[in-house]
Design brief:
- Two copies of one chain form a homodimer.
- Helices cover about 40% and strands about 15% of the residues of chain A.
- With about 450 residues, the first copy, chain A, is α+β, with helices and mostly antiparallel strands.
- Chain A folds into two domains: about 5-165, Creatinase/prolidase N-terminal domain (Creatine Amidinohydrolase, Chain A, domain 1, 3-Layer(aba) Sandwich); about 170-460, Creatine Amidinohydrolase, CATH 3.90.230.
- The first copy, chain A, has a five-stranded mixed beta sheet.
- The longest helix of chain A has 24 residues, at about 170-195.
- Chain A is globular and about 70 Å long.
- The model of chain A has no long low-confidence stretch (mean pLDDT about 95).
- Chains A and B meet through strand 2, strand 3, helix 3, helix 6 and helix 9 of A and strand 2, strand 3, helix 3, helix 6 and helix 9 of B.
Chain lengths: ~450, ~450
Amino acid sequence: MFDSTVYSSRRDALRRGLASRALADGTILFLGNRESPMNYPDNCYGFRQDSSFLYFFGIALPCLAATLDLGSGKATLYGDDATMDDIVWTGPQSTTAELAALCATAASRPRAALAADVRRAGAALLYLPPYRADSRAELAELTGRPYAAVNAGASLPLVEAAIALREVKSPLEIAEMDKAVAVTVDMHKAALSTARAGMLESDVYGRVAQVAYASGGGLSFPVIATTRGATLHAHGHDRRLEQGGLFLLDAGAEGASGYAGDLSTSFPVGPSFDERQRAIYELVLRMHRKACSMLAPGLKYRDAHLAAAREGVLGLKDLGLMRGDPDEAVGSGAYAFFFPCGLGHMIGLDVHDMEDYGEILVGYEGTERSELFGLKSLRLAKALKPGMTFTVEPGLYFIPELYAKWEAEGRFAGFIDYAAVKPWLGLGGIRNEEDWLVTEAGARRLGPEFDKSVAAIERMRG
Amino acid sequence: MFDSTVYSSRRDALRRGLASRALADGTILFLGNRESPMNYPDNCYGFRQDSSFLYFFGIALPCLAATLDLGSGKATLYGDDATMDDIVWTGPQSTTAELAALCATAASRPRAALAADVRRAGAALLYLPPYRADSRAELAELTGRPYAAVNAGASLPLVEAAIALREVKSPLEIAEMDKAVAVTVDMHKAALSTARAGMLESDVYGRVAQVAYASGGGLSFPVIATTRGATLHAHGHDRRLEQGGLFLLDAGAEGASGYAGDLSTSFPVGPSFDERQRAIYELVLRMHRKACSMLAPGLKYRDAHLAAAREGVLGLKDLGLMRGDPDEAVGSGAYAFFFPCGLGHMIGLDVHDMEDYGEILVGYEGTERSELFGLKSLRLAKALKPGMTFTVEPGLYFIPELYAKWEAEGRFAGFIDYAAVKPWLGLGGIRNEEDWLVTEAGARRLGPEFDKSVAAIERMRG
């Protein structure tokens, strides 16, 4: 974690943000995460602290909670000190008072004191929307709301003030993200040097996970390591890599500090792309470069998405797979047959940063969300600001199930040449993904150089 | 998963078990697990199906539920078929009707039909105790019970009947466990050939995880890969391996079928044990052999625990660390200063098999549970039956915090020579763990041969 004053400064900034939203009094309750049971109460997944708790209190331990009094600025950390039995099983641990000092929190109290303190706050209690059932149940008990009504009771001004802070990364945070992306690049290079025809997807997955864990952190999301690139989120790892096919890795490290990396790399199982694969791969790179060339403060990210889509349409027309007016092909949503997802999403302490706060609040802010297939999956549309970090991940996909449905319906037949597309259906999908930071002057990639050109990929696969 | 008739046979056996407990009518509700959110609703941990659902229905997919009518034997699977958006994101999927056929379940219904069907069952609804908050919340809604009262409403006869079935492993299950233990042996051999002074614990953890994932399965519990063997469950991986120290790996694979392996190996960071380490290591092996030599149908597992403890006391006396009458040292609980945990636990679809059903019901069955420090942590005490599978994992630990407390209190000073123990405190902890099966004739180890003798370990470290 960072120096303790980082956390008190963030809490002060949050108070100012709420005061500017006419909320100068009240108590914010931050519930840290508990352990998450896998198949019985004591067999738990790897602990992941709540990102809001990490941002404002920094401590990545289970079963903590904290309050922040908006009037006085007093923060209190709630937790239970270890017993001798705890120490025998899990080793010596800091007391709650020691933890409180680490995040510049003046007071510490046993967890059991939380209920009475929350009751005292009464209607002036503010909380963020919970995304785990145990937090929702605890908030129901603490606030007296029905379980199903807990999320509706979350504080919109609190969410807005937290987004305003967290969406602009500080230099300390950017350094952590550069590190997480560096580990992520190592994961992808390990896959490029490991994957061979005859292996299982799980062999590549294992190697990628090894690099993430060995770095001292973990995985920022479930690894996609697949021969089925046409499926956007293919999570099984039981297929065999076949000569002539493509492999798609979408994976990221989470640093020990909690910050995420998220990259996607597509490459041939053999030493080189075939002609069609190379054509689509290079077109995805052109879409990528087009979007990245536009990144700067003030750019609406939706415009980068649409520009990448237009670049894709132009290339697909050249390949004889699309036809008609490019702008209409983009405006109508026909392009989404090949590019059915969004160009990217915010990234930070979460790989989809702050998605628990609500995708529209985080990614749209005064920008309307489309209901068109494809564009409706765009998670970030609003204007960019210096300090924002997000992914750029255009892709082109040949999805047999979507083809069967749309072709039968004759959907967008003026734009999509289904007869011409048919022989390409086995290609799968190609995605290229990087993580970017908006600067005052423009934008830069996060992490170290990672050359994704055809020549570089084929060199790594040779 | 196994052939579909395996699941209908198990459900028939469950019905017979309940009929013999005077429950011939009613409806059992099995809630499959949902995805478990990590840091926002859509970023989830690796999916783990509920083990009861796996045992009786076999399908390892999220968001399923099933009912079993005790009177007619009719089973119904509840789930929702994929939409085109689902297929674009996660690929083509079996329909609920197709899944129902895989587990010989006659009927399939949309998930939304579950509420009405459960209402019809009324007071005759039986369910197992939930261990995840989302399942508890769903049961609260389905049954109208308060959230906090859901677990108390679980059916004891159902739990007892399920234990009676699941505690005796079939040949099919034993084959799966042999496979899981084989992968686990590979994980431990990979650690033995990887770990070197100067590395971080996370380097070993990464290598161990790689082997598990590459096998097509996963990890059956959070890996303990530690230089701090004195902490029974040390889950951090941030320490450096130092020449002269010990390393303790406690890790297991979970096969794709859900069955678990669980082994512990202790070894020197350098090429060989030092004199004290060797003395304790060999004593732990003697405790291990003593316990294993007794394993047979009818043996109360608590007696194996106590025999291992007595073997430890004899050896610690020889080393001058304990004194007094060995039987009294065991009976009083003094031995637990060095061996503060249980000898083992059931293993199967869960690494602590069926622990969600209740440790006493699973492991004690008419045997009283001790409240003594150490013995109270024994999870399996009851008489063994052919087909039971469990771990044998004696260990000896030098825990500085426990030493400080007990020495100051003069606790068991007639048995523990604190002055003599003091120079051993830096040794840490040594645990040796294997997985065993009770047969008609006696018992056998699960998985392949894995020689843990000093000579074999030092050969692997050389």
